[in-house]
Design a protein that fits this description.
Blueprint lengths: L1 H22 L1 E4 L1 H11 L1 H22 L4 E7 L3 E9 L5 E20 L6 E13 L4 E17 L4 H67 L5 H36 L6 E4 L12 H11 L1 H22 L4 E14 L2 H4 L4 E11 L7 H68 L4 H36 L1 E2 L4 E2 L3
Parallel strand pairs: 1-7
Antiparallel strand pairs: 2-4, 3-4, 4-5, 5-6, 6-8, 8-9, 10-11
Protein name: Outer membrane protein TolC
Keywords: Cell outer membrane, Membrane, Signal, Transmembrane, Transmembrane beta strand, Transport
Subcellular location: Cell outer membrane
Length: 485
């Protein structure tokens, strides 16, 4: 009975330890790791912050086309000083003055996109107090309206209206690309840890198998059926297996840290990863991927934006020709009086019309050089965009082909892994029976291990191609819809 109770205690302890081990293990698959990275990683937070920055830049741009209302004033404008006063005989006399000169001005302005001019209106009131003479006088502009128009100059507003929306759309798509890039990075960290875990499993299995074969070989050695050299070879294999376990544990610790660090996972539990699926139910056609990429990618939007910026630079070089001309017109009413009410009673009209000019006579070819430089840069930009379009197209076509190739590679590596595993089992049995050398057994070991790693690497390449396709096209081929966030 005592042996029976001892057995129950040992069984309970084993089950308890297994339960504890399971409770301390966090099981994750590839989809969960990617989702975690998109939600918690520093990269995701940086992408969201950059998106918000671009949004407020867009709002700043839009405000430039809205009416602006401002209030400015000097309250109070007290001054006490000595000033020079010229006397009738031409001499200068310094006199003490003490006054207050306060003003308040309310104005609005609206820029006109088509012309680059500005329409504005204003109303103002000014009060002057002479404390030495105990007098007060008011001056005001009940209302006035005017228009300022630069002539023959570069219109910044018109070109900003063309380019700024492209920049904003580009930033929106760039945010989606950033999230897809996070998927690619998270997938890489996932497979680094998965491969490390597989390496550890392989190493531990090899250590156990080597130990078992070593016991059989020792028995055969005592019977004189194997040589001392074979025993030494097995001892060397045992040391190599022990070393491989240590290296695999180290690599797994590093890979675990990298995965947790990137995804923002704070748990101290051990991570156990599940093998991802070896296939996805979707069909990718190069023409569809290309069409979606040119509609969705920030690079595609940037092609048009870069060409517009080059045209803008040419227009600016032509507009900034040294001829500065401006037409200013203003209509309004003004009046002064001893009290505020008198300022607004029968005010007198005021008018302003002026044309200012500044014409360069000799610039030593400066303007011509600027224009030629801008035109050359525009030509270079056109060639550069054309080359980038070709590279963009080729990259997507190549990635589609790689994705299809990876499907076949997974099937081939799965078959190779199965064959290598069967060959290893046969080799191990033949060695036990004594009709296989230790060298051939070692080769079977290595081929089996490599086949397992090749299969994991083919899975890694397949999913890397999958996420790369999403990144390059911003299109979900599984759901047949654009990727939106």
């Amino acid at each position: 009975m005592s042996n029976y109770y001892t057995f129950l205690v040992m069984l309970f302890a084993c089950l308890f330890n297994q339960a504890i081990a399971q409770s301390d293990t966090l099981r994750l698959n590839l989809t969960e790791v990617v989702a975690m990275a998109k939600e918690k990683s520093i990269a995701a937070k940086q992408a969201a912050t950059l998106k918000e920055t671009r949004y407020w830049e867009w709002m700043t741009y839009r405000s430039n086309y809205q009416p602006q209302l401002s209030l400015k004033g000097t309250l109070p404008g007290y001054s006490k000083s000595s000033i020079a006063v010229q006397q009738p005989d031409g001499t200068i006399d310094f006199r003490q003055v003490r006054n207050n000169n306060s003003s308040l001005d309310l104005s609005f302005s609206q820029q006109i996109t088509q012309t680059g001019g500005t329409i504005f209106g204003t109303t103002s009131l000014q009060r002057f107090d002479d404390f030495d003479r105990n007098t007060t006088i008011y001056n005001g502009v009940p209302y006035g309206i005017g228009y300022a128009q630069p002539l023959f100059q570069f219109n910044t507003l018109k070109w900003d209206r063309r380019i700024a929306p492209l920049k904003y759309n580009e930033s929106q798509q760039a945010y989606i690309e950033s999230m897809e890039q996070i998927s690619i990075n998270a997938s890489n960290y996932f497979f680094e840890l998965l491969l490390a875990q597989v390496d550890l499993q392989i190493a531990e299995t090899n250590r156990r198998n080597t130990a078992a074969i070593q016991q059989i070989a020792n028995t055969k050695f005592e019977m004189g059926k194997v040589s001392k050299n074979e025993i030494l070879q097995l001892q060397l294999e045992a040391l190599k297996a022990e070393k491989a376990v240590g290296i695999a544990k180290r690599d797994m610790e590093v890979a675990t840290y990298n995965l947790k660090s990137y995804t923002g996972l704070q748990s101290s539990d051990q991570i156990r990863l599940s093998l991802p699926a070896a296939s996805i139910a979707m069909k990718v056609v190069a023409e569809k991927a290309l069409a979606e990429a040119f509609q969705n990618r920030s690079d595609a939007i940037a092609f048009g934006r870069r060409l517009e910026e080059a045209r803008r630079d040419v227009a600016k070089a032509k507009g900034d020709n040294g001829l500065n001309a401006s037409l200013n017109a203003k209509l309004g009413f003004s009046k002064s009086g001893r009290n505020i009410s008198s300022v607004y009673q029968s005010p007198k009209d005021q008018q302003l019309l002026e044309l200012t000019l500044e014409i360069p006579i000799l610039d030593w070819g400066r303007q011509k050089s600027r224009k030629k430089t801008a035109l050359a840069n525009q030509q270079f930009t056109q060639y550069s965009v054309e080359q980038d379009k070709q590279n963009f197209t080729q990259k997507i076509i190549t990635e589609v082909n790689l994705f299809e190739m990876m499907k076949d590679q997974i099937a081939l590596n799965a078959k190779a892994e199965q064959i290598a595993s069967e060959k290893y089992l046969i080799a191990k049995e033949r060695y036990v029976l004594g009709n296989l050398s230790i060298t051939d057994l070692s080769i079977a070991f290595q081929e089996n291990d490599q086949a397992k790693r090749d299969y994991i690497n083919s899975l890694r390449d397949f999913w890397a191609a999958y996420y790369q396709l999403r990144y390059l096209s911003l299109y979900d081929f599984e759901k047949n819809e654009k990727i939106k966030i």
